[in-house]
């Protein structure tokens, strides 16, 4: 992938429901102060041994423990603190930083649903690279799988 310098200027997350009515994340990323990418990160249906760990709240009174409010808090807190305001030369550089921030082989600390959102990250520099200043975008990313990419 070619190098694209960009700066993440805002990072927001919401708990939303996916097509199966299961809680998942919607992540909104602002780049260079104006370009915006929005994507829903689907909840993983597969539980294969090679897949990264998805993080859930575990509160049995909310969505049978499948809520993602703690993941939203991680994205808007620790992850935002690590990536917002920094310049990134490539998506690979951002991937490496997120894997290092998590610090586990299968993304179990922050969760693959918080750090393994490779598809939404692809939208970050798109607007800037084509000269469009504001690009709202919604996409179900990675077709529901969370592969370990660290």
Average residue-wise pLDDT: 76
The CATH H-level homologous superfamily = Enolase-like, N-terminal domain
Per DSSP, the total helix count is 5
CATH topology: Enolase-like, domain 1
Strand order of the largest sheet: 3-2-1-4
Write the element-wise H/E pattern from the N-terminal end onward: EEEHEHHHH
Principal-axis shape: globular
Q: What is the helix content? A: 25-40%
Q: Under the CATH scheme, which class? A: Alpha Beta
How many domains? 1
CATH architecture: 2-Layer Sandwich
Q: Tell me the major beta sheet.
A: 4 strands, antiparallel
Could you say which structural class the secondary elements and strand pairing correspond to? alpha+beta
Unreliable sequence segments? 130-150
Termini Cα gap: 17 Å
Please report which band the strand proportion falls in: under 5%, 5-15%, 15-25%, 25-35%, 35-45% or over 45%.
Answer: 15-25%
Query: What is the number of strand segments?
Result: 4
Radius of gyration: 15 Å
Walk me through this protein's architecture.
The chain has helices spanning 69-83, 91-102, 112-115, 118-122, 126-129, and strands at residues 6-17, 23-31, 35-41, 87-88. The protein is built from 5 helices and 4 strands, in the order E-E-E-H-E-H-H-H-H. It has a 4-stranded antiparallel β-sheet with strand order 3-2-1-4. By secondary structure, it is an alpha+beta fold. The chain has a single domain (6-144), classed as Enolase-like, N-terminal domain (Enolase-like, domain 1). It starts with 5 loop residues before the first strand and ends in a 21-residue tail after the last helix. The longest helix is centred in the middle third of the chain and has 15 residues, at 69-83.
